[in-house]
Amino acid sequence: MKRLIPLFLMLFSGASMAQQSYSIEPIKDNVYRFSVGHYHSVFMVTDDAIVVTDPINPEAAQYLKDTLTQRYEQPIKYLIYSHNHIDHTRGGDVLANEQVEVISHQYAYEDLSWTQAPTALPTLTFNDTLRVNLGDSHVQLRYYGPNNGRGSISMRFMPANVLFVADWIVLGRMPYKSLPGYDIHGMIRSTEAVLNEPAFDVLVGAHAETGVRENVVNYLNYLKALYNGVRDGMLAGQSLEAIQASLTLNEYAHLAMFDDWRVQNIEGVYNTLIEQSYFNLRE
């Protein structure tokens, strides 16, 4: 069953912050979820320091920084980016200073650097895995290959055993529109890899709901049904419009944004199979 997390704090910003809403919720033990509208990140508080993740935007980062300063004596020691996309990494310069190590995957660093992204650049990168130690707690970072954006990773906060994943696992909601920036093959492979790892207690996504293993299994089943349905339609010579009409995916109609994004999800997979697999060049 899906785990419901109680609301801990809700504040609303002033007009200058475009009516952004902020919330901080306890997830488990020393791990918290920070929400800005429909965006989420997490942070962990230890006896000696705090590790924060995606800043989301400068206003949100300033709010989080001020709140943590008021609530805790411990300083922020680490800022970890989930991937390169600017709607998750902007505001890093608000949280970063000479005492804060900014961490990302090497590919995320390259993208942020090459594109001159308006945020703090990572000061520590890795390729496959990295363990970030904070006293009796730690964060295990892992890269699974392409799935969404560049250098997208999972973060497992221990010993609370809370897993944070941005964008390529979304619980209780459809994947975003026509899957811009997504690799559908990598989404499936990466999600399978997560399910083959030791069990997590709670998964927090950068969007939508928190959940447990069975929610991730349901999400993976949707991805496979979507992919297989589009592929089989293309193998049968159907047009995009015909696949959108016939591939109803009704068993997943409970997902948020199903009516709005089903046909766009189908379009995203269809375009991926043309752009990455050259399906249109088959005889």
Describe the structure.
This protein has a single domain, classed as Metallo-beta-lactamase, Chain A (4-Layer Sandwich). The N terminus is likely disordered. The longest helix has 23 residues. It is α/β, with parallel strands linked by helices and 283 residues long. The termini are far apart. α6 packs across α8 and α7 runs antiparallel to α8. The chain has 8 helices and 13 strands. β11 and β12 form a beta hairpin.
In short:
42% of the residues are buried. An 8-stranded mixed sheet has the order 1-2-3-4-5-6-7-8. A 5-stranded mixed sheet has the order 9-10-11-12-13, with no helix packed on it.
Keywords for this structure?
8 helices, 5-stranded mixed β-sheet, 283 residues, Metallo-beta-lactamase, Chain A, alpha/beta, disordered N terminus, single chain, 8-stranded mixed β-sheet
Secondary structure: elements and pairs:
Elements: E1 9-12, E2 21-28, E3 31-36, E4 39-45, E5 50-52, H1 58-71, E6 76-80, H2 86-89, H3 92-95, E7 101-105, H4 106-114, E8 124-126, E9 129-134, E10 137-143, E11 153-158, E12 162-165, H5 184-196, E13 202-205, H6 213-235, H7 240-246, H8 258-275
Parallel strand pairs: 5-6, 6-7, 7-8, 12-13
Antiparallel strand pairs: 1-2, 2-3, 3-4, 4-5, 9-10, 10-11, 11-12
